[in-house]
Amino acid sequence: MNDMFRGFDRREDLAKKKELREHQVRAIGMLRRSMGRAPLGLGNKRVVLQAPTGAGKTLISAKLIEGALAKENRVIFTAPAISLIDQTVAAFEAEGITGIGVLQASHPRTDPLARVQVASVQTLAKRDIPAASMVIVDECHLRAKVIERLMSERPDVYFIGLSATPWAKGMGLLWQDLVIPTSIGDLIERGYLSRFRVFAPDVPDMSGVKTVAGDYDEGQTAEVMSGKTITASVVETWLERGEGRPTLLFAVNRAHAKQLFEAFERAGVASAYVDAYTDVVERQIIERRFRSGEVKIACSVRTLTTGIDWPVGCIVDAAPTKSEMLHVQRIGRGLRVNPGIDGCLILDHAGNSLRLGLVTDIRHERLDDTAAGPQKTRAQADKLPKPCPGCGELLTGLQCQSCGFLRKPVSGVEVVEGELVEIAGKKAAPTREEKQAWWSGLLSVAKHRGRAKGWASHTYRDRFGVWPKGLDYVLGEVTPEMWNYVKAKDIRFAKRRQNA
After folding, report:
1. 228: helix, coil or strand?
2. CA 164/CA 287 separation, integer angstroms
3. Which of 2, 20, 157, 251 is most deeply packed, by most CB within 10 A?
């Protein structure tokens, strides 16, 4: 294994190929130490690399493959889905790796003699698997049976697992070591991942929902989340707070995703629907429309939790879960840094951030070594957020970063969440110019609708908490954010009338 990694001993050697970030260099070094021969290495054959979404696992893999090819070794890279094969090949070729074969029936890149083979785990289960010195398993927490069989049959082969969330039950019985070169919080601080804000409505009442295979029963969860009140709240909250950002929405099941898709379409928001049965061509069309801004919201059922790199500025989570892995994978879709998108907004209607913790606070230092049997109770995140008494932002510490309020811990006091509270991050106070733009835009809406000035004044007060004193009475442009806010106000008014 030392030979396989030769050429990566010094950072300057890495830089000659392509400049790697510090955490990527560290990842390769940690893998080398774990898999190297004694006395310098630990001699492990099966090692998991934990790295957040956006940490550059593809680039790290490319450098590992380059090291193996330099010593005439063969490599197999496995992807979790057939739809990711071409994307993986293109990514490796962009890093200068050539002569890549694909293990997939009728694929134009099929080449059984190629020293690098890219395959989906589904294909490996149906094909003869060629010899290789190293197998890199992407999304190894998914626990593919063919990979576990291959580990058993080929004890001398080096296996490297890649995952942002390698916390599946029993992984420690198969893999020998876990290396963690960086974290979500560290990458955010260094500017490699996006900062985020989280807002959450009241936690849905899941007390009557049974647990199946360690998570909430899908059918019962869909019933809880499909009610008219929650559905309207999802649309209303996005219109009011979503700022028109490109958004991924995660629903409970196909029916729930379609229900939310239709609700957004009725509200005049261009949306798309994606599930496991959406074919590759249609998904490419949806992605293109999403990137161009034609589609604002993509409503999905788990299918967009891994393997995509869309320019996301907002996550709507409408699917309660007990799974930390699923929770972190969803939020990770919005943490890549995208030009023109200021951070990520997370609208957590499922209460997952309150129940499981912020993704920056969820961590496990070891692989789970629980054998088959009853579900093992896992410790909660080190910190669960609580609302700031001063401004409502949820805190995981004593000092509020938004308003400066210093909370003193008091035992025996229960904190009750409001209808919508901010869990993380802060937003700068609006300037006078921004307030004037809103006031002028609302006056234009009032004129267009034949409303009195008082309607614009009350709407402005709803938005900013104060009356528009000192602002100029001039008509102005109505932005999509203003129009969405007005539509959300209309929905609230209609709900109050219906309830009355």
Report:
1. helix
2. 23
3. 251
Report yes or no: 88 and 120 within 8 Å, Cβ to Cβ: no
Dihedral sign for Cα atoms in the order 338, 425, 490, 263: positive
Rounded to 10 degrees, the C-alpha dihedral 357/360/365/370 comes to 30
DSSP 375: P
At the fourth CATH level, the homologous superfamily of domain 189-362 is P-loop containing nucleotide triphosphate hydrolases (3.40.50.300)
H/E element, 373: none
The answer to whether 83 and 283 have CB atoms below 8 angstroms apart is: yes
> Among residues 460, 421, 426, 464, which one has the least CA distance to residue 440?
460
Instruction: Note the CATH architecture for domain 11-183.
Output: 3-Layer(aba) Sandwich (3.40)
Where along the chain do its domains lie?
A: 11-183, 189-362, 432-499
Q: Which of 122-126, 135-139, 150-154, 245-249 has the lowest mean pLDDT?
A: 122-126
Q: What is the mean pLDDT of residues 19-41?
A: 92
Phi, psi for 223 (deg, rounded to 5): -65, -40
**Omega before residue 39 within 30° of 0, cis:** yes
Whether 189-362 and 11-183 are alike in CATH topology: the answer is: yes
CA distance 30 to 312: 31
- Collapsed DSSP state (helix, strand, coil) of residue 431: coil
Rounded to whole angstroms, the Cα distance separating 25 from 258 reads 44
Q: Please, which pLDDT band fits residue 373 given cuts at 50, 70 and 90?
A: low
Going by their DSSP bridges, the two strands 247-250 and 271-274 should be labelled as unpaired
Tokens 């007390």 -> residue: 207
CA distances from 69 to 35, 62, 130 (A): 17, 10, 16
Task: Summarize the confidence of residues 139-157 as an average pLDDT.
Answer: 93
Whole-structure pTM value? 0.77
**Calpha distance 109→352 (Å, rounded):** 42
Q: Where are the alpha helices (DSSP H) in 319-359?
A: 324-332, 352-356
- Beta strands (DSSP E) in 349-476 are 386-387, 394-395, 420-424
